[in-house]
Specification:
Elements: H1 12-18, H2 23-39, E1 46-47, H3 58-78, E2 80-81, E3 85-86, H4 94-104, H5 111-123, H6 129-141, H7 153-167, E4 177-182, H8 184-198, E5 207-212, H9 216-220, E6 230-235, H10 251-254, E7 262-268, H11 280-292, E8 298-302, H12 315-318, E9 323-328, E10 341-346, H13 350-356, H14 360-370, H15 382-389, H16 403-418, H17 423-442, E11 457-461, H18 462-481, H19 486-495, E12 497-498, E13 500-501, E14 511-515, H20 521-550
Parallel strand pairs: 1-12, 5-6, 5-7, 7-8, 8-9
Antiparallel strand pairs: 2-3, 4-10, 9-10, 11-14, 13-14
Helix pairs in contact: 2-19, 3-5, 3-6, 3-16, 4-6, 5-16, 6-16, 7-16, 8-15, 17-20, 18-20, 19-20
Length: 551
């Protein structure tokens, strides 16, 4: 490492070792460095390494707590002891009692949303009033096992409407989606891959395609010994006319999906970290490939950031029969701690079709696996097999997401459904876009508009920036003398700024990921200044070396 630059504690050999770690594990080392520098009082630590937003949706939470009050009243109405023991909600007449409760509490925070929810359920879906309100009361109290285990009846219908609005831009395909409520998007991915294996839809050593850059664990899953998949990377290697990344997938990359040996393809859409949604052209290309070249290709799409793109359309809307849609409520509503997400699968899908076409010996094995929970296991839908597999089949009777989680999920969905002006959506989008612009302006760039850009993260290619601003000689000097993560260690130790390495997401080796969701606006100006400072020090050191050579 060049001695003219400020010395840092982390040697290049150590950096090389740490570079092999997942970005989320490397982050802990960076936080330690930044915290040490922060303790000296020269900077406040700015951790933009993780995507937990610094906002929450208040109204759905107010509705949850108010509903909890009603639920407790219903429990005490059934049985009430001073020792702190109560009964459970009773269904008969509960809708009228809820209506009266809402009138009495009409000025309470959250009452408006609950009133709209009740009206929406009864008028739009024609729910049975007592059954609907009873499920709300039992759900918020959490006194029963989840029944149905895949998802409660009424929350499923309302979350379905939300997915149609946000993932299908209110233009869904014919038919409906079956929904499995899960402990966030990460649990959903675990359940999907487990059931794909258990049901012989994919086997160890099969070929899969991954759209990259992407969320690091999705890259690491195929490497696990249990799967040992052969991976084809679909690279977002597109650039614009200025030579800058636009994070699009060129035709030559998408054409890789034509290979019928590729069984599964999965992506994050909008991407993480580039934070760009598939364009109309890209979606049409994928649809064409599936129709003409690889009709049995199983797609898994994680659309957690879709709500940050106006008019977003998921592949679950475009190729519903091939797609398992995964959605987490965590980022949009600021509820990562609630651990709530869903898997959505169209009622007519290739997963069920492929299971039906399995050879007899495999059908026999699956009959044995699921016979304890179904009289005719061959009729069991793939999505219901996922529910059973999530509890090792034998514990299927206790499967399902906790009832309070499902009720809060439904309230988040309802809040978005009833927001006819999209005020909340526009606000969240404005927040991340404003921070993104501050980051780029602080680095001396003007960000061009892109309707497909979510802006939840940004991936900055330091090497590309170095080459465009200082030429190929400087870029070569940087590459020859430093490790890609050196920028991150210097930012942490010198500026108390924590970012993640983009190479760990299978992005450009010298790229860095910035989360635009979890810090104040002014923090991104400070982060930009830190990046500019670190790069300028590399440049000054390079110039000093050049002068020394010339002498």
């Amino acid at each position: 490492m060049n001695k003219n630059l400020p010395k840092i504690k982390t040697a290049r050999k150590t950096e090389q070792k740490l570079e092999q770690m997942s970005p989320f594990e490397l982050k802990n080392n960076l936080i330690d460095l930044a915290s040490h520098h922060n303790n000296k009082g020269s900077h406040t630590m700015l951790n933009a390494g993780r995507g937990n937003p610094n906002w929450i949706a208040t109204i759905p939470r107010e509705a949850f707590f108010l509903l909890g009050k009603f639920g407790l009243e219903e429990c005490r109405r059934a049985m009430n002891y001073k020792e702190g023991l109560a009964g459970i909600p009773q269904q008969k007449g509960i809708a009228k009692r809820f209506d009266h409760f809402l009138i009495e509490n009409k000025m309470a925070p959250g009452a408006g949303l609950l009133t709209e929810l009740l009206s929406y359920g009864l008028k739009t879906h024609r729910f049975d009033p007592d059954a609907f309100v009873h499920e709300l009361a039992e759900g918020v109290i959490g006194d029963q096992y989840p029944v149905p285990d895949r998802m409660l009846k009424y929350p499923e219908a309302i979350v379905h409407d939300y997915l149609v609005q946000e993932m299908c831009s209110n233009k869904p395909p014919k038919g409906k989606y079956d929904i499995f409520a899960t402990e966030g998007g990460t649990a959903a991915m675990c359940y999907i891959f487990d059931s794909l294996m258990q049901n012989f839809l994919i086997k160890r050593g099969d070929k899969v395609a991954i759209f990259v850059p992407t969320f690091t664990p999705y890259i690491e899953i195929p490497e696990l010994d249990r799967f040992n998949f052969k991976v084809t990377l679909i690279q977002a290697s597109g650039v614009n006319k200025d030579g800058m990344h636009n994070w699009e997938y060129p035709d030559k990359e998408l054409d890789k999906l034509k290979n019928p040996q590729i069984k599964v393809a999965y992506l994050v859409n909008p991407s993480n970290p580039p934070s760009v949604a598939l364009s109309t052209v890209e979606r049409k290309k994928i649809i064409d490939i599936i129709k003409k070249d690889n009709p049995n290709l199983m797609f898994i799409t994680d659309d957690v950031y879709g709500t940050f793109v106006n008019g977003f359309r998921s592949l679950m809307a475009e190729i519903p029969h091939n797609t398992l849609g995964v959605y987490s409520f965590s980022k949009y509503f600021g509820c990562t701690g609630w651990r709530i997400g869903v898997i959505a699968l169209h009622e007519k899908n290739i997963y069920d079709k492929l299971i039906h076409e399995l050879p007899e010996n495999k059908k026999t094995a699956l009959h044995k696996r699921y016979h304890s929970i179904h009289l005719h296991p061959e009729q069991l839908k793939f999505i219901d097999r996922m529910v059973a597999d999530s509890r090792s089949v034998a514990l299927n009777h206790t499967a399902g997401l906790s009832l309070p989680q499902q009720i809060q999920m439904m309230l988040f969905a309802s809040f978005a459904l009833f927001d006819k002006t999209n005020a909340y959506k526009q606000l969240t989008c404005t927040i991340v876009q404003r921070r993104l612009n501050l980051l780029f302006e602080g680095m001396g760039f003007t960000l061009k508009p892109d309707p497909n850009r979510a802006g939840y993260y940004s991936e900055l290619d330091i090497m590309l920036w170095a080459q465009k601003n200082h030429g190929s000689d400087f870029a070569r000097y940087l590459k020859d003398n430093y490790e890609p993560v050196d920028v991150l260690f210097r930012l942490a130790e010198i500026c108390s700024v924590v970012l993640l390495n983009g190479g760990g997401f299978d992005g450009p080796e010298w790229s860095i990921r910035v989360s635009l969701a979890n810090l104040t606006d002014e923090s991104y100006t400070a982060i930009a200044k830190g990046i500019v400072l670190i790069i300028s020090e590399y440049v000054e050191d390079w110039k000093r070396q050049l002068k020394g050579v010339r002498k």
